[in-house]
Amino acid sequence: MEAKIQLFCSTLFLYLVSVRANTLQTYIVQLHPHGVTSSLFPTKLQWHLSFLEQTLSSEEDPSSRLLYSYGSAMDGFAAQLSETELELLRSLPDVVAIRPDRLLQIHTTYSYKFLGLSTTRDGAWFKSGLGRGTIIGVLDTGVWPESPSFNDQGMPPVPKKWRGICQEGQSFNALNCNRKLIGARFFIKGHHVSSVSRSANMIQEYISPRDSSGHGTHTSSTAGGVSVPMASVLGNGAGVARGMAPGAHIAVYKVCWFNGCYSSDILAAMDVAIADGVDVLSLSLGGFPLPLFDDSIAVGSFRAVEHGISVICAAGNNGPIQSSVANIAPWIATIGASTLDRKFPAIVRMGNGEFIYGESVYPGNRLRSAKKELELVYVTGGDSGSEFCFKGSLPRAKVGGKMVICDRGVNGRAEKGIAVKEAGGAAMILANTEINLEEDSVDAHVLPATEIGYAEAVRLKAYINTTSRPRARIIFGGTVIGRSRAPTVALFSARGPNLYDSSILKPDVIAPGVNIIAAWPQNLGPTGLPEDARRVNFTVMSGTSMACPHVSGIAALIHSAHPTWTPAAIKSALMTSADANDHRGKPITDGNKPADVFAIGAGHVNPDRAIDPGLIYDIRPDEYVIHLCTLGYTRSEIFTITHKNVSCSEILRMNRGFTLNYPSITVAFKQGMKSKMITRRLTNVGSPHSVYSVEVKAPEGVKVKVKPQRLIFEHINQSLSYRIWVISRKKTKTKRISFAEGQLTWVNAHNNFYRVRSPISVTWK
């Protein structure tokens, strides 16, 4: 009964705020953490309400406008305000910054094996106890708690430091949490006052931590799901499903709803997660890059890092556009996406006997009817969007009983299959266009279907255009492992250079993000579409959203093995141990060329080496403040980001020539600039009496000098510094901008396992 009353009150609140939403907008108001007016009030909440009392008309209750009161991720609140009220609020003392609420978007059975994770005594799982004792906080679309990936059999007790709750709501109660899924909350106020209406055919949204879209269940299980035997997607990719840190605990914070994720809700979740006691925060969401003082995730994550919490974020899916990488704060680990060497061949045999390679996880190898040769049709012309297979665009008379070609783009890949099926089509070939090239994200389609690359699509359409009665069949080949080069960079993975900070390379690393199999809720079919009546425990998804929780889980393993390490130390371990080469020992590729550092950062994550990196580049929170000063950020902007009131002129005078102790090395030569001196500091976390020598592969067009060339560490946790001089030899007048890359590696003289590698990127402007 109490839960029903709570739900009624929540619904009533949401109705009332939506009535006013047409004239009001949500703003995040940041306050001075030690404001002069704060001492006048017994609680932070009352202090926050006092600002609204001074801003609103006397007859209005200030609490009706307040959405959230923040205290951990930042000091301040989210509230609904009119333009006039906003201007009045700006003039009040202790108001540091006001930002409009922003809408962001959400960006396995084999990937742990591909990454080399196994139960051998020298591996990351053994050294970390599978992530035992570490808590991963996942900000996403919620969780399906009944999924076998969240079973707590064999899990240790909930850590004593945990202060979170299992928040009850629609179809979710306290019993849905256990020793694996130790906490769950939901944050909906920013979303509900946005006044965006749902379309009629959408899946029901649960006003609770329960996941209705599948994305959060998928990412949570990738980070920390337990072992589930005989997992597959309709028989494809069969094996034991495991998250990266199967012994870690998971806490879920639902911040994303049917229209996306609002920054006011995200900040509220980060605020609570810091207080709850998480060790790692995983955010598979974001947008385009923003200046740090305008980026709520950057602001909230700085506070998290100050509390010793590693923040792992998706780089975004706007690749291969240059400078599209998001979540670019230097204290965040920014993750791009790569491929696995697992394929799901579904080859098209054309009527002329030629073959076209495609991929699919439709279970066609089990169904005789799926292998039939059919007439092939590609419906073009008019303005109905029939070439994209929009719903209602395909005439039944033209496609009934036939195999339909659908161009990729505009509507969802699996939606096209539904449109074909509803029009009476018997099968589908999903054809990549010039935009998607050879990128091969697969789907569990509702009818026999395969996806082909752009080059193959050109061949297929040429066959159709030169044949009077074109025909084809799809040959489904199940699952094939180890026959293709991997990892390679995913086409959609967002790219650098860093738009707002040319001295920090982003993304930091890449991790598996294409065709990842992980847990799925029971309210959805494997395509996630309302028309799909099939039910599965696992499905396949692609995106930097899938890459991010791989690294969140690996960060949890490192934290379990080294609980005193800072977030910067953990990120350093991930970066300096990353692989620049694929599993065949050749440079990682991006399409048909070697991948550059703006695609892969430091390289592809390697958990067994990351858990024992030998040396680390550590960074204290106050060093990030000095770095912001070097970028020319103003006093108020730095205060907005870090809550630290500093004089940059004084800081820069005391830290002449300062460079952030980042694990990658980036130099941007401006007009007339010939050389740059960079300082780095390494801390020994390997063995005492360790000697390291430097190996440098200089970027083309520069000379690189390093002093000293040997580092002799007498004991563990000892730190030693070295200097790098990067000297330009390039004539810059011939080209307006150019780029070169190399690497610097510290190699242990007695143990070649310890190779501490930093990419070097150089640009001329």
TrEMBL record:
CDD domains: PA_subtilisin_like (cd02120), Peptidases_S8_3 (cd04852). It is found in: Secreted. One of its GO terms (cellular component) is extracellular region. Its main location: secreted. One of its GO terms (biological process) is stomatal complex morphogenesis. Residues 1-21 form the signal peptide. The keyword Transport does not apply. The active site is at residues 140, 215, 545. Residues 131-603 form the Peptidase S8/S53 domain. One of its GO terms (molecular function) is serine-type endopeptidase activity. Residues 374-459 form the PA domain. PROSITE patterns: SUBTILASE, SUBTILASE_SER. Residues 26-107 form the Inhibitor I9 domain. Residues 660-762 form the Subtilisin-like protease fibronectin type-III domain. The keyword Signal applies. Pfam families: fn3_6, Inhibitor_I9, PA, Peptidase_S8. Keywords: Glycoprotein, Hydrolase, Protease, Secreted, Serine protease, Signal. It comes from the Eukaryota. InterPro entries: PA_domain, Peptidase_S8/S53_dom, Peptidase_S8/S53_dom_sf, Peptidase_S8_Ser-AS, Peptidase_S8_subtilisin-rel, Peptidases_S8_3, S8pro/Inhibitor_I9, S8pro/Inhibitor_I9_sf. Belongs to the peptidase S8 family. This is Subtilase family protein isoform 1. It comes from Theobroma cacao (Cacao).
